[in-house]
Write a structure and sequence with these properties.
globular; about 40% strand; mainly beta; 12 strands; about 170 residues; 5-stranded antiparallel sheet; 3-stranded antiparallel sheet
Length: about 170
């Protein structure tokens, strides 16, 4: 995940705000043990709706775009799997446009089964970008205007139960 705030109409401004300081191009380098005894990337929450699916550290050369590690997210045959980043530290980005960029690779063939989303707490609509199923690295970018009254920002990366391959 790469996070940067941008001013409206100025897309070359890549100053990373304090809101996202702990998240860099190497966000999946640091892992911790969850309460269930599983390794999870720091700063991210893992949720699965079904009985299987999972998240794991991935270091094979074919699956790392930047850094030494990436995250492998497997679908569940029933329900979706997510990794999610939430922050209440929105003071610095309130009233600005932001964008979120993620490099993704999968052999999935199901349309719309792999998605990056951004949502403000209280907003009904989540802005989504889907993987185009090329089998190659694709950069997914979503952006949104963060309202001045925003109290929480949620970034979600989802693999749906309909996916034919992990991501």
């Amino acid at each position: 995940f790469v996070f940067s705030s941008i001013k409206e109409g100025v897309y070359s401004d890549l100053e990373i705000k304090d809101t996202f300081k702990e998240l860099t191009n190497k966000s999946f380098e640091d892992w911790e043990i969850s309460l269930e005894g599983k390794f999870l990337p720091k700063q991210f929450e893992y949720i699965k709706e079904g009985t299987s699916g999972g998240v794991e550290r991935y270091s094979r050369q074919d699956g790392v775009k930047d850094g030494k590690f990436s995250v492998l997210l497997r679908s569940s045959p029933v329900g979706n799997s997510y990794i999610k980043y939430k922050t209440s530290n929105t003071r610095e980005i309130a009233g600005q446009h932001i964008r979120v960029s993620v490099w993704v690779k999968s052999q999935n063939k199901t349309p719309g089964a792999i998605q990056l989303g951004i949502q403000e707490k209280g907003k009904k609509n989540e802005i989504l970008k889907s993987y185009n199923n090329s089998g190659n690295w694709e950069r997914l970018v979503v952006g949104d205007y963060i309202g001045v009254e925003t109290s929480k920002l949620i970034i979600t990366f989802t693999i749906k139960s309909s996916a034919t391959a992990p991501v």
